[in-house]
Amino acid sequence: MENASKALIMAGSVLMAILVIGLLVFGYQSLSALEQSKENAKGDLKAEQYMERFEQFDRTLYGSELLSLANLLEDYNNTDDVKYDGYEEMTIEVYTTGITNTTYFKAGTYSITKILEDKNKIEKEISKYEVKNSDYNNKSVKYYSEKSNRQIAEEFRIDVPGTTPDYDIAEIYLKSNTKTNQLLNDIQNYKSLTTIYNEFRIGKKFECKEIKYDDNNGRIIKMYFKEKAK
After folding, report:
1. Which of 150, 176, 182, 193 has its CB 3.0 to 4.6 Å from that of 170, i.e. a possible disulfide?
2. Domain ranges of the chain
3. Residue 19 burial (CB < 10 Å; 0-12/13-18/19+)?
4. Regarding beta strands 220-227 and 60-62, do their DSSP bridges make them parallel or antiparallel, or are they unpaired?
């Protein structure tokens, strides 16, 4: 009888241990499932917020707003959802009539990332003319672009006879000097680049013609913009 009692006690202890372990495993799984649900909910909320931000661009945009949309697209396509969880990348296409006589923002239909690349390239080119240059009295090309030819000549101590306004005599004297002649060329390039950049940013408008959604999850997978005729 004593041995039988011990056996029952041991069996009961084992059963109790199994029940405790089972409860712990169940609790852990339930907690993990709850945490995963929370993470999924956070991910869904974040995705929904992204979609709302994109849908705000379902209208006519200036070029500057289109560039903001390009940055938003880049952020979205770098989220964990897209990079690791199998969600489709979003694409945005833009048709533009282009800007003549330039390598930037050419006519055609492009991915918006190509538009963003042009924007980054032209900003980089412009920035070169906005830094101080030791060849130009430690002043920038941008600084001189706001001066008249006669004022530039005075900065470089080039005597220009008479008091006539800017173009006729002062420019001739500036062009006869190697350094100031190069400065005039740089000023022309700087003004050309800023004109191109501003024409795209504030001179062009683009209308959203299409938004395509994923049938399975409702996320936007494509947007299409077409430049409006002036």
Report:
1. 150
2. 1-55, 60-230
3. exposed
4. unpaired
Please tell me the total number of residues recorded for the chain in this structure.
230
Spatial CA neighbour of 92 closest among 60, 70, 59: 70
Q: Cα separation of 90 and 165, whole Å?
A: 56
Q: How far apart are CA 94 and CA 66, in angstroms?
A: 9
- pTM (2 d.p.): 0.74
Query: Which element (helix H / strand E) includes 31?
Result: helix 2-55
Task: Give which of 190, 202, 197 is closest to 121, Cα–Cα.
Answer: 197
Residue 141: name the closest of 131, 156, 152, 153 by CA.
131
Helices 63-77 & 178-203, crossing angle to 10 degrees?
A: 80
Q: What is the pLDDT along the chain (230 residues), one digit of tens a residue?
A: 555 565 556 655 656 656 656 655 555 555 554 454 444 444 455 667 778 989 999 999 999 999 999 999 999 999 888 888 888 999 999 999 999 888 999 999 999 999 999 999 999 999 999 999 999 999 999 999 999 999 999 999 999 887 666 557 889 999 999 999 999 999 999 999 999 999 999 999 999 999 999 988 889 999 999 999 87
Bridge-partner residues for 139, per DSSP? 133
* Cα separations in angstroms, 193 against 33, 153, 165, 216: 56, 24, 26, 45
The answer to whether 87 and 105 are in contact (CB under 8 A) is: no
